Amino acid sequence: MQRSFNLYCQISKLPYMRIRFFLLTVFSAFIFQSCLKDKMLYTYTIARPVYEQKSVVYANIRSNAPQQVEHPGKIYLYGNYIFLSEVDKGVHIIDNSNPASPVRKAFINIPGNLDIAVKGNTLYADLYSDMVVVDITDPLAARFVRYIPNVFPYRYTEYGFTSDSSRVIVDWIRKDTTVNHSDFLTYYKADMMVFASSSSGASTQNGGVRSPMGVAGSMARMSIVGDFMYCVNTYNLLSYQLDQPTDPQKTATNNVGWNIETIYPFRNKLFIGSSNGMFIYDITNPAVPVRESQFSHARACDPVITDGAYAYVTLRDGTSCTGTANQLDVVDVSNMSTPFLLKTYAMTNPHGLTKSGNYLFICDGRDGIKIYDATLPGNLSLKKHITGINTYDAIAWNDNLLVVADEGLYQYNISNPVSPVLRSKITVKK
Amino acid sequence: MRYYFPVLFCMMIFSAGLHAQNKPRFSTQNTVGLLIGGSDNAPQLQTVNGVAFNNWFTGIGAGIDWYYQRSIPVFVSANRYFTTSPRRQVFLTTGAGINYPWGKPDYFTNGWGYELQMSPGLFWTAGLGYKINIGKQNDNLLIQLGYNNKAHSQETTYAMPCLIAPCPVSKEKYSYSFNALSLKLGWGF
Predict the structure, then answer these.
(1) Residues of chain A with pLDDT under 70
(2) How far is the alpha carbon of B24 from chain A, nearest alpha carbon, in Å?
(3) Which residue on chain B is closest to A26 by alpha carbon?
(4) How many beta carbons lie within 10 A of that of residue B54, not counting itself?
(5) Which of A209, A211, A205, A204 is nearest to A227 (CA)?
(6) Torsion of CA A381, A310, A252, A288, to 10 degrees
(7) How much is the ipTM here?
(8) Distance to chain A for B23, nearest Cα, Å
(9) A35 vs B contacts (CB less than 8 Å)
(10) Residue A83 near residue A410 (C-beta atoms within 8 A)
């Protein structure tokens, strides 16, 4: 028995030691675990605002040397001139006497600019939350006249930065930074909070908003009808009397709702697009608009135009729009008091739109421009699809289609709408 | 170009293994194990399949690695065996290849304007092993202790809300290089 036990020990001795060695190795691995460091790098961009005194900014609101178009925004036609907003920077003045060869003539520095409107010799433009009035009697020698404070209060802050009453943000300085990210990841890993500590009400067949000499796109937030200017901000419709164009006087403030985006006048009505519906206001008394009706839709951004019988509403999703709809709603507005949905058409990511005669031109975002025969609004027929450009807004005027896209400002000859011919392009500086 | 040298290295290992063989035979090594590192302890699964002859084994491996961010390393591996007894061998093992992240990090939540792009990185491993023949055939038990390094990167883009597109895009890039001790147990033939 003893002998058998000794033999067993002899046989099992070596494997036992090896198993013990293996276990020791495993244990050691855990001991040296803390010696192993993972390399985790986090690279991000810091954007720091550059502030300027308002007095300096106002002094610089004049026709300066022309600049390259970098981030085109809303457009406004004024006689032979195109006013093109350079998002958050100012307004390009473009001589469009020859649409085949437009010439950039000047640039008006207006920080925070998104919207423009023109009446006679006066340009109205937003400067973040304020509105500035600019004399453009000679568009190449524009000059600042005055400002109206707090017309667009929702733009009081920009990406979390707030200017005080004496300064505005005129630029951003960006800087790439790389840091070790280990601690940040550890927080997440532990499921901990990182934050411990148109003019006089006249309609336009062209789908634009006509003022005596001006046409705006469908994405506009400012519109001029006769001697009144209407502006929409996030919640309100503001009415200004323009008897003295350089000295607008507010006559009414209407609370419209939530997330108001665009305004489009038609005869004695205002069509207002919001994130959750289209509102129709009666401006028989232009000083005090009165709500007439509302058409509700799914939550999305929605510019609207109308030809009097039908309203065309594009709905899109996006970062500030939320929602998931990307479509064109055709709304029967033959009875303005009771608008109803006629038909919905699927789109990719529709933005601005315009109409010329029976043809509807839709800027479908990254899917280019779609041209529909709208003779039968309940049965739109796609006649032409221009791809390869990321479109934002359009104005059809005098057989000329003006299109703002990420890639530039395009002009097409649409004397034959189903076969547009590119006339010119002002390329965006990349 | 980034992967040129590691791939070349792997091909050299593979080539060296094949040249050392007169009568190559199919061989496989399948292991489960533990990765022990400064940020995590995580399981791993691996299989390496290739050819073996004399004191060499070379093959192509793939696995699943749960260390911090689940990933799939695909690599070329080579082992050199040193016989210590008729049924036991010590071996040196090495491998290199590409680490493909699988899925998104647990903490990443999709939201409006957010996009996440995961990119592969390098993977390499080296270690020491012990092989015990456990049958009359070529079945054997494998025990390995080694060192693993895997890398990958992810880029998060966030389109900031704005009134006129294109909205400003915020980009954040995360580059990871994880180091861990690797303990593996397995079976092969």
Answers:
(1) 1-19, 21-22, 29, 156-164, 181-214, 298-301, 318-324
(2) 31
(3) B183
(4) 12
(5) A211
(6) 160
(7) 0.78
(8) 32
(9) 38
(10) no
